[in-house]
Design brief:
Length: 247
């Protein structure tokens, strides 16, 4: 899911032994995730001076074998089993981001105005992952400053929901996941989001994770449901309505 630096290592779970002088993966809140590589301060010098040792290092390997015994690390440095609730929640938020990425690709040529919003949501899921990977029981103040999850993410979702809901017909029946490929993909995201929320709630109740993360996922599922309906309407696709099948 997200990448954090600890003693030159990017983790948890991914185990990338990445020298921070070589590269850093950054996900700015509300912006696209991007990779930035360090450069020398004098660009014109590169053709005249020999490369430094940091410039000639080989790219890091994607595998480190540190998780082969079934353990991984939190941002606070704890080693926990990979089936720990923290990693279950991290993995599910990662799955959610992947599902959203797939939905974005499905809708690439549809011209929907909310695609940029979905990319912001993916970055906020990275922020949520940072908070989840920082158990409050072992976090120091420095950890909390870097991984605090802002309420702004929740307020943005509520604002977006209100905008799209105002353009939709009122709900009069239960809607089945349907309404064309775009809508169906968004319904799939919504279902994964609900599961992510169910994974995070026990961590919040145990005092291990910021409550704003669970609130964000709760609101995000409403947002994805609203987008699914909006996409179906804009694409002229029919939504299937639940009808009780009497014996």
């Amino acid at each position: 899911m997200a990448l954090w630096s600890m003693g030159g290592r990017m983790g948890p779970g991914l185990g990338l032994g990445l020298d921070m002088g070589l590269a850093r993966l950054v996900c700015a809140r509300g912006l696209r995730c991007s990779r930035r590589q360090g450069r020398g301060s004098q660009q014109g010098e590169s053709a005249e001076r020999p490369p430094s040792s940091s410039e000639t290092r080989r790219p890091p390997k994607i595998y480190t074998r540190t998780g082969d015994q079934g353990f991984s690390s939190t941002f606070t440095g704890e080693r926990r089993l990979k089936d720990d609730q923290v990693f279950e929640a991290l993995g599910t938020t990662d799955e959610l981001s992947s599902a959203i990425g797939f939905a974005i690709e499905v809708m690439t040529d549809k011209g929907h105005p909310f695609v940029d919003e979905l990319e912001k949501v993916q970055c906020r899921l990275q922020d949520a992952g940072s908070a989840i990977a920082t158990p409050l029981s072992s976090a120091r103040e420095a950890h909390l400053k870097r991984t605090a999850f802002s309420e702004d993410a929740i307020l943005d979702l509520e604002r977006w929901i209100d905008v799209y809901t105002s353009q939709l017909p009122a709900l009069t029946a239960f809607i089945l996941p349907s309404g064309g490929k775009s809508s169906a993909a968004l319904h799939m995201c919504r279902a994964v989001c609900r599961r992510a929320e169910r994974c995070v709630v026990p961590l919040v109740q145990a005092g291990q994770t910021d409550a704003n993360v669970a609130k964000f996922l709760n609101r995000l599922s409403d947002y994805l449901f609203t987008l699914a309906r909006y996409a179906a309407m804009k694409e002229g696709k029919e939504e299937k309505i639940y009808r009780r099948q009497d014996p």
